[in-house]
Design brief:
By secondary structure, the protein is mainly beta. It is built from two helices and 42 strands. A four-stranded mixed sheet has the order 2-1-4-3, with helices on one face. The protein has a four-stranded antiparallel sheet with strand order 13-12-11-42, with no helix packed on it. A four-stranded antiparallel sheet has the order 14-15-16-17, with no helix packed on it. Strand 14 and strand 15 (219-225) form a beta hairpin. The protein is elongated.
Length: 536
């Protein structure tokens, strides 16, 4: 009986609780329409839409069409409540094209041959033309954005070039042959006298990788930086005797280590190329050799392959350099692991290893390649050798470098100067007559001030007889700052005013002439921008 009473009591409590909850519920009522305000096309209106409608549904009910560019606030998916304002901004897009002027640039060339402050117009500037397409954006009829989306150059502008005197003119001096130098990305030519100089290439983009005069001084071979993706530079020739100077694109790109005229034909050029890479040093050398001929009419013939792409020996990824044999029967090939010879007399040409030595380990992203140069009789090849003479399997970190003379007829090399440093760059002079009337020549080279740390050392300019005797330092003075590594250049003949032979040298960014007998040095420039020189 007790259990029956308990469950009966529990059921009563449940009934009572359900009644109380029902009494607490608010009375339900049906929701009415929602009133919203539409602002569109400059007008405002109020519309009623069913409760639970979205902005998009409200616009459809009001018959408002929304274009693909129109902007709706709030977004179309928003649920509406009373007093919501819906704004539609009409957006229109138009395109217009118009021709515009490209103002020419003004370039200033410093010329130490003009008195300081004096100016001279070298080239008159001409504006260019371009066609520009603009995107115009209108909101409710008002222009809110105008952006260029396409530019087509119709005519390139021509820069105005003004020559400005840099300092008081140097004492003029008669000059044999033609001397060309590269400063500020432009090429200059000095002839007859040191105060007679003129700009010959004023594009401002010469990179100095190649800068060579032809044997007769009539043409200049040079490389220009390229803005084209995947192209480091391009190879060009300037015909110096043309008025104005004629520039010829040889159609060869990516020349880093070598290009030169034939010693007997200024219309025949050889060059070695590389393949650009993103990783240091920025290229992979092909170690090839291409030959190109320019016809008398200025047409560039299809390049001929003299040497196919090859590994180039140990560390050949950096690249080989070449040196024409004066009798044009072949070229010396400077490699990180030795000196070879490319014989052009057979067909196809043959590559022979003449002077092997231990390659130098730089432990960096560059490789050392020896300087090489032929004597004027083509019977001796002067070169820099690494490590002990005759040793090909020595220590790659050995700091010793020697100047040697390789005699092809004997098949061996003679050491002319020891511990000269890795950047000695020997350069034989042209033929001259000795005091006893016998034809001879001298050899200029650089001597490292600290030969066992020659990678970082400065150098002094040295001259010796062709057999290595009578070596003496010419420039700079012992107490002066040494030279940066470079190849110096002999005068093509004795200087008319002194009867002495001279050398063109770069020192602290300026061009100097150094007399061989006295060591007297005369600056030809004073702006510190010279990076390359040649003298023929």
């Amino acid at each position: 009986m007790r259990r029956v009473v308990f469950f009966a009591s529990l059921g009563g409590w449940l009934v009572l609780l359900a009644g109380l909850l029902a009494a607490c519920q608010a009375p339900t009522r049906t929701q009415g329409p929602v009133r919203v305000t539409l602002v569109v096309d400059g007008q405002q209106q109020t519309v009623e839409v069913p409760a639970g409608s979205t902005v998009r549904q409200a616009l459809e009910q009001a018959g408002v069409e929304v274009g693909p560019l129109d902007r709706v606030t709030p977004p179309g998916y928003t649920l509406l409540t009373d007093a919501t304002t819906i704004t539609v901004v009409r957006v229109e897009e138009k395109f217009e094209t118009q021709e515009e002027v490209i103002p020419f640039e003004r370039q200033t060339l410093r010329n130490e041959g003009l008195p300081e402050g004096e100016t001279r117009l070298v080239q008159r500037g001409v504006n260019g033309r371009q066609e520009v397409t603009y995107r115009l954006v209108y909101e409710d009829g008002q222009l809110v954005a105008r952006q260029p989306v396409k530019v087509t150059v119709l005519e390139e502008p021509v820069p105005e070039i003004v020559m400005v005197g840099a300092r008081a003119a140097f004492v003029p001096r008669p000059l044999p042959g033609r001397l060309a130098y590269l400063a500020g990305g432009n090429a200059w030519l000095v002839e007859s006298s040191t105060d007679r100089r003129r700009p010959v290439v004023v594009t401002g983009d010469l990179d100095g990788r190649v800068f060579r005069l032809s044997y007769d001084g009539s043409r200049l071979l040079f490389t220009r930086r390229s803005e084209q993706e995947g192209v480091l530079n391009t190879l060009w020739v300037a015909v110096l005797d043309a008025d104005p100077v004629e520039l010829i694109d040889l159609g060869i790109a990516n020349v880093v280590h070598f290009a030169d005229f034939s010693p007997r034909n200024p219309r025949y050029v050889v060059a070695s190329t590389v393949e650009p890479r993103d990783a240091p040093p920025g290229w992979q050398a092909n170690n090839d050799l291409l030959a190109v001929t320019v016809t008398p009419g200025g047409t560039v013939l299809e390049p001929k392959v003299l040497l196919e792409p090859n590994a180039g020996g140990v560390y050949g990824w950096w690249g080989n350099a070449f040196a024409w044999r004066p009798d044009v029967q072949g070229l010396a090939v400077a490699r990180p692991d030795g000196v070879a010879y490319l014989d052009l007399t057979p067909d196809p040409p043959e590559l022979q290893l003449w002077l092997p030595f231990t390659p130098y380990q730089t432990r960096s992203d560059w490789a050392w390649v020896p300087g090489v140069a032929w004597g004027p009789d083509a019977r001796v090849l002067f070169a820099v050798s690494h490590g002990p003479p005759g040793v090909t399997t020595g220590d790659e970190a050995d700091p010793r470098f020697h100047l040697v003379a390789y005699v092809p007829e004997w098949g061996r090399a003679l050491t002319l100067a020891e511990d000269v440093g890795m950047f000695a760059y020997p350069v034989p002079s042209p033929w001259r007559t000795a005091a006893d009337g016998v034809p001879t020549y001298h050899v200029a080279y650089l001597q490292a001030i600290t030969p066992r740390q020659s990678e970082l050392s400065r150098y002094g300019l040295m001259v010796m007889d062709r057999d290595g005797s009578d070596a003496r330092r010419l420039f700079p003075a012992e107490e002066g700052v040494g030279l940066e590594p470079q190849q110096v250049h002999w005068s093509p003949a004795a200087m008319p005013d002194t009867g002495q032979w001279a050398l063109a040298v770069l020192y602290e960014g300026d061009l100097y002439l150094v007399d061989e007998d006295t060591g007297r040095a005369q600056p030809l420039t004073g702006d510190g921008q010279v990076v390359a020189v040649d003298w023929k």
